[in-house]
Write a structure and sequence with these properties.
Layout (H helix, E strand, L loop, with lengths): L2 E5 L2 E4 L4 E8 L6 E8 L6 E6 L6 E3 L7 E6 L4 E6 L8 E9 L14 E2 L3 E6 L1
Parallel strand pairs: 2-11
Antiparallel strand pairs: 1-3, 3-8, 4-5, 4-9, 5-6, 7-8, 9-10, 9-11
Length: 126
């Protein structure tokens, strides 16, 4: 059974940077595509970024494109998400999610992912 653990959240000043990690266990990591989503209070869960099993396909939401980098280290079973120039609107619980790379739904859709972590809180102080 796949398990995901998000690390790296916290309180960050506006304009600062944060690097989140998603540690994966229970499945061959290189068979999984990984997505990051976030949910702010009172809002629906929203797509942030995703990366394919090889790292060859990468996606970003418009709200983070240009100030965010997703990467993966298949030797460490970990995906990283760095967000720079953080804004108050980035405050949310950040979740990573996994799905078999063979799944054909769009990477930006939360319905594509069948396993989710418990999330990590990111709070940007303005």
């Amino acid at each position: 059974q796949v398990q995901l653990v998000e690390l790296g959240g916290g309180l960050v000043p506006a304009g600062g940077s944060l690097r989140l990690s998603c540690e994966v266990s229970g499945r061959t990591f290189s068979e999984l595509d990984i997505g990051w989503f976030r949910q702010a209070p009172g809002k629906e869960r929203a797509f942030v970024s995703a990366i394919s099993w090889s790292g060859g396909s990468i996606y970003y939401a418009d709200v983070v494109r240009g100030r965010s980098t997703i990467s993966r280290d298949n030797a460490k079973n970990t995906v990283f998400l760095q967000i720079d120039n953080l804004k108050a609107g980035d405050t949310a619980v950040y979740y990573c999610a996994a799905v078999d790379t063979a799944d054909k739904l769009p990477a930006i859709s939360p319905f594509r992912y069948d396993t989710w972590g418990h999330g990590t809180q990111v709070t940007v102080a303005s």
